[in-house]
Amino acid sequence: MSHAWVGPVRRLLGPTLVTVLLIAAVLGPARMAGAHGASPAATPGAGPGLQGAVDWMIAQQAEDGGFPGFSGESDPTATANYVVALGAAGNAGIEVADPLARAWAYLNEGAIAYAQTGAAQAGLLSLAAAAAGEDPAEINGVLPLTLATGATSPETGLYGLGVYDHAIILMALAAAGQEVPAEAITALADVQVGDGSWAFDATTTEGAGDSNTTAMVIQALVAVGEGDSDLIPAAVAYLGTTRTEDGRYGYSAAAPLLADANSTALVVQALIATGVDVEASGDLAGLAAFQNPSGAFRYQDADTADNGFATVQAIPALAGSALPVVGDSVGTPVASVGWAA
Question: In sequence order, what DSSP letters do the residues of 6-34 get, joined into one string?
């Protein structure tokens, strides 16, 4: 089972986030990326902010332009997610041209092999291209969206291995300006849990849903022009059940409710996509409370180590961007593509 992580990937990552990081396909997103040393907990609003997070992230880049995955070596899934974060930071006015170009060169060189590893990976590669200001529909001779949408599950009608993969691929189609089949939206409606959530593996049992997958689906629906969908209000209401009193979010509504940076970041992006003022609501401050003095983000308050995955997940939200991120050279981002200025 493999997933691409543009957010969390519960399958490979770690226990509390079900975000799609290809590399981890089984663990759970929130813990997935490497930790780079412990730092003391930060107080809400006292962190170095977006610039500090970007500076820390860029310092992790390898000489070949890639970013480290679980093995500590440059990894295409990790690098694709870092490219999305760099693109969001660049659109927010942070200088990232050189590290972004180097990271994209690393991905571009290995595009053929990587895009063939799975539908979600192909979709993630397309999203990275869009964030880098490149053509998301054709990458070094590869047509990633053709690979991503080449087959659907006979049981659910979803692309990839589940709902999280499906959301990534829908956002990639939106970033490329390609038509999304009506059946792809119907497939999401068919697997929405009764409480308004979605589960990464399309399970519809009550309580199976999670904030990560639900946030990804909300962003995907907005991105493909379904922002008025009847599916969204219940999904947003579900996200509220995963919110702690201090404006942070956990992986699921199940007790005990434990907030983590990855879940909070994805929810903030989903709220941005739906037009919520996350600064006024306190949700952005909730995310900032996970930032360490180093500029990196920790996964949870109980684990204060600088965490690469948490940091790369937090940056687009700090930059005020919903997914997909579209780099300037691709064209002016528009609401129908899920962009939030």
Answer: SS--TTTS-SS-----GGGTTS-GGG-SP
Distance CA 132, CA 54 (A): 15
The neighbour count for residue 305, using CB atoms within 10 Å, is 16
Q: Which of 126, 74, 124 is nearest to 102 (CA)?
A: 74
- Which CATH number does the domain housing residue 241 bear? 1.50.10.20
> Does residue 122 belong to any structural domain of this protein?
yes
Encoded tokens for 265 = 């970041």
Residue 229 domain flag: yes
Euclidean distance between CA atoms 8 and 21, whole angstroms: 5
Which letter, b or e, does each residue of 114-127 get, where b requires 16 or more Cβ atoms within 10 Å of its Cβ?
bbebbbbbbbbbbb
Per the domain annotation, does 3 fall within a domain? no
Average pLDDT rounded to a whole number, residues 6-18: 35
* Helix (H) or strand (E) run with residue 306 in it: strand 305-307
Domains contained in the chain, number? 1
The pLDDT value recorded for residue 70 is 85
Do 115 and 139 meet the contact criterion of CB atoms below 8 Å apart? yes
Angle, helix 163-175 to helix 119-131, in steps of 10 degrees: 40
Looking at the whole model, is its pTM more than 0.85?
yes
d(CA 328, CA 127): 14
The pLDDT of residue 255 is 84
Look at residues 253, 338, 244, 339 and name the one whose alpha carbon lies nearest to residue 300: 244
Angle between helices 308-318 and 261-273 (to 10 degrees): 20
